[in-house]
Amino acid sequence: MGMLSIINARVVTMRAHGSAHTHTGARHGAAMNELGVIESGHVCMRDGVITAVASGRPNSLAGEVIDAGGRVCMPALIDCHTHLCFAGDRWNEWEQLRAGRSYESILAAGGGIMSTVGATRQASVATLAQDLADRLRMLAYLGVGSVEVKSGYGLDWPSEIKMLTAIAQAAQQTPQHVLATCLGGHAIPADNAAWPEQFAAHIAELARQFPGVAVDAFCERSALSVEQCRQIFVQAKKFNVPRRLHTDQFNSIGGVEMAIECGATTVDHLEAANENSIAALAKSKTIAVLLPCSVYALGGSYARGRSMIDQGAAVAVASNANPGSAPTIDLRFAMHLAVRHCGFSPSEALTAATWNAACALGIETQVGSLNVGKRADAIVLEERDERALAHGFSGPPPRHIVLAGKLINDRH
Ligand SMILES: [Zn+2]
Questions:
Q1: Ligand 1 centroid to residue 82 C-alpha, Å
Q2: What is the distance in A from the centroid of ligand 1 to the CA of 327?
Q3: CATH number at residue 380
Q4: How far is the CA of 319 from the centre of ligand 1 (A)?
Q5: Could you tell me the CATH number of the domain that includes residue 125?
Q6: Residue 374 CB: number of other CB atoms within 10 A?
Q7: Between 392 and 6, where is the model more confident?
Q8: How far is the CA of 204 from the centre of ligand 1 (A)?
Q9: How many angstroms is it from 320 CA to the middle of ligand 1?
């Protein structure tokens, strides 16, 4: 694999207090503004691992050298919430929605999420894996080095396993660090009202077959109840499976409190979270993952990120990429929306899409900051000020992208 050095860069290390600390946990509140900037420095990598991060020029240079010309060098982005494994498309539905038809009537006619479930159940593992790998490559070219991908369009056990198998296969074909989450609690299929309980009963098997994979559910009036989600989490806790929850997207029904009580790693969405839930979150270790792209696509109120950070919560931001409510692969756009509509500072948005996103996935010892010994995932922006990343929208993509020590896109 060899050696690669990025020199003459504004190095945004994402290390807390500019220190060499690697394992300091998610950044809460005011600490989300800490970027650990080295004004003029370099990053050296060998065999896929970071070997030096320091100011000035390296003493000696060998292998490939990128002169950043004062541009920003920072950790590759981390998208900690996507639904990129799916079959079929939702363009007819989108056209009908734009023409004024309600989502409820589309859903009642077997459309919406159930059309994706139907197409995904029909698809082969090979097709799902190939399509996912193609999408992941597009994310890589936007500078996303680690990606979480959820199942959840199977909603029966063989189809959920098929999706997790496809995600594992796609991970072998792409340059990124890919992590799977089993979103068995995404919805209750019309053909099986007992599915949430059946999913809970399969978690022991999940832990055996896919060690390290997290579970996830959608706690909402139109999806799973708090009690159904709790049953899934109790099982998951028993088998040491990490727990995540889609909650408070449209209604606040107690999902945040239940998730905190069950030691969830993250609660995701939170557009409808009330002050009590935000206060509880701020006192907990559970990370809030905001998904502003779906608000942009659907309309409605954005999550109150400013209030969460001011009260001391740890917040991450993700694309929520999916074929229905967030048809985008652009984490940078999600960062922009977090600043524009959720009250983040540009620095907080950077932390939310790197270090805190790594913590949401439990991979902060491997990625999420530029530290010696970590995976050599780094990007060089076109810009010389990191605030540009959350300021601009619709690009530009990074100038250079290095994943696992390998330059994957050099347009210059
Ligand atoms: Zn989601």
A1: 6
A2: 12
A3: 2.30.40.10
A4: 9
A5: 3.20.20.140
A6: 21
A7: 6
A8: 23
A9: 5
Q: How many domains does the chain have?
A: 2
CA distance 335 to 119: 31
d(CA 17, CA 22) in angstroms, rounded, equals 11
* Residues 279, 141 share a domain: yes
206 and 83 in a common domain: yes
Element (H, E) at 179: strand 177-185
Question: pLDDT tens-digit profile of 48-104?
Answer: 999 999 999 998 888 999 999 999 999 999 999 999 999 999 999 999 999 999 888
Per DSSP, the residues of 185-226 read: ES---TT-TTHHHHHHHTHHHHHHHSTT-EEEEEESTTSB-H
Range of the domain at 28: 3-76+368-410
326 and 346 both lie in a single domain: yes
For residues 298 and 381, membership in a common domain is answered with no
- Out of 106-120, 145-159, 252-266, 360-374, which region has the weakest mean confidence (pLDDT)? 106-120
pLDDT of residue 1: 59
Element (H, E) at 46: strand 37-46
Give, in order, the Cα–Cα distances in Å from 285 to each of 89, 253, 259, 310.
37, 21, 11, 15
- The per-residue pLDDT for 394 is 86
- Measured between alpha carbons, how far is 343 from 307 in angstroms, rounded to an integer? 8
Same domain, 282 and 379: no
Same-domain check for residues 36 and 84: no
| Over residues 211-218, mean pLDDT | 97
- Sequence-distant (6+) residues with CB within 8 A of 115 are 88, 90, 93
Residues 10 and 104 in one domain: no
pLDDT in tens, 277-311: 999 999 999 999 999 999 999 899 999 999 999 99
CA–centroid distance, residue 149 to ligand 1 (Å): 10
CA of 60 to the centre of ligand 1 (A): 46
Task: Say whether both 282 and 167 belong to one domain.
Answer: yes
